[in-house]
């Protein structure tokens, strides 16, 4: 079930400033990587077609195997009578532009973990180091699919990109959904950043806590209360039963060496 929007009771959503993790830096591509990327963009020599949500994406098994241990296990295990870890397959005929399945015959590999085909496109752009993964923002549904694929195919760099997307254009309208995504995928640091941004904006915080729907999410309320309360101070030591004597005592009259007496 889709999480309802919080703080949207006829009020304009408030944008939140979030200092989240920066996406990974660009790759230092070798000449070989550049040539493989050109083959991918032109649809040349593709020997596998990834299919998701009715869309097809020709690719190269060798590249997928090199980038993901899960693809490696899948494709190597499927090679019949193979005595080496190489993936054999009939290459597709070259064609201008990104090839369609008809132009790039090869094994079909269906990806059912994502419901948005854009997530598969972003996965391939990451694998081929296209740099398109630096897109400014994405709908949360696509980001969730990217996180699923990154987790499934063991691509931690893609997870970092998705975490950066979750920080973009966050508002009170969808902050609960973003925190839910962080919880589901173990992005605890980013979830803390979202809470900090909400706590820092008192107007946004008021918009959230005054929405009756927030009562349906006690975990969120508990997190907000902890954020407002701040770190717990260390417990003070228990006072002694007897009051401590002053560090310096005044000399009693008439005592001492008798100086000043006549």
What spatial form do the alpha-carbon principal axes imply?
Answer: elongated
**Radius of gyration, whole Å:** 30 Å
Helical element count? Answer: 10
Mean pLDDT: 76
What is the percentage of strand-forming residues? 5-15%
Strand order of the largest sheet: 2-1-3
Span between N and C termini? Answer: 99 Å
Based on secondary structure, the structural category is mainly alpha
In terms of quaternary structure, what is this? single chain
Structural description of this entry:
Helices cover 40% and strands 5% of the residues. The chain is mainly alpha-helical and 262 residues long. The chain is elongated and about 60 Å long. The relative contact order is 0.15. Mean pLDDT is 76; it is low at 81-105 and 256-262.
SSE inventory with pairings:
Elements: H1 31-42, E1 48-52, E2 55-59, H2 61-67, H3 69-77, E3 107-110, H4 117-127, H5 140-152, H6 156-166, H7 175-184, H8 188-200, H9 202-209, H10 218-229
Give me a quick take on this structure.
The protein is mainly α and 262 residues long. Helix content is 40%, strand content 5%.
Features:
single chain, mainly alpha, three-stranded mixed sheet, 10 helices
């Amino acid at each position: 079930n889709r999480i309802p929007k919080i703080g949207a009771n006829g009020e304009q959503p408030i944008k939140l400033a979030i200092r989240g993790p920066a996406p990974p830096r660009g790759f230092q591509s070798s000449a070989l990587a550049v040539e493989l990327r050109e083959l991918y963009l032109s649809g040349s020599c593709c020997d596998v077609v990834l299919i998701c949500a009715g869309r097809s994406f020709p690719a190269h098994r060798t590249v997928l195997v090199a980038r993901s241990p899960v693809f490696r296990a899948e494709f190597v295990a499927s090679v019949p009578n193979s005595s080496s870890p190489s993936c054999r397959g009939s290459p597709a005929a070259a064609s201008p532009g990104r090839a369609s399945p008809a132009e790039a015959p090869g094994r079909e590999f269906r990806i059912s973990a994502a419901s948005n085909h854009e997530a598969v496109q972003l996965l391939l752009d990451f694998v081929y180091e296209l740099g398109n993964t630096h897109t400014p923002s994405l709908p949360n549904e696509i980001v969730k699919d990217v996180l699923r694929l990154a987790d499934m195919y063991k691509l931690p760099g893609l997870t970092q990109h998705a975490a950066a997307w979750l920080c973009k254009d966050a508002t009170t309208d969808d902050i609960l959904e973003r925190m839910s995504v962080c919880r589901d995928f173990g992005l605890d640091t980013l979830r803390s950043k979202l809470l900090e941004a909400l706590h820092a904006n008192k107007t946004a915080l008021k918009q959230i806590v005054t929405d009756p729907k927030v009562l349906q999410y006690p975990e969120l309320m508990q997190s907000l209360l902890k954020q407002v309360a701040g770190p717990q101070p260390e417990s003070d030591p228990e006072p002694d039963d007897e009051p401590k004597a002053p560090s310096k005592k005044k000399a009693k009259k008439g005592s001492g060496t008798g100086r000043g007496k006549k």
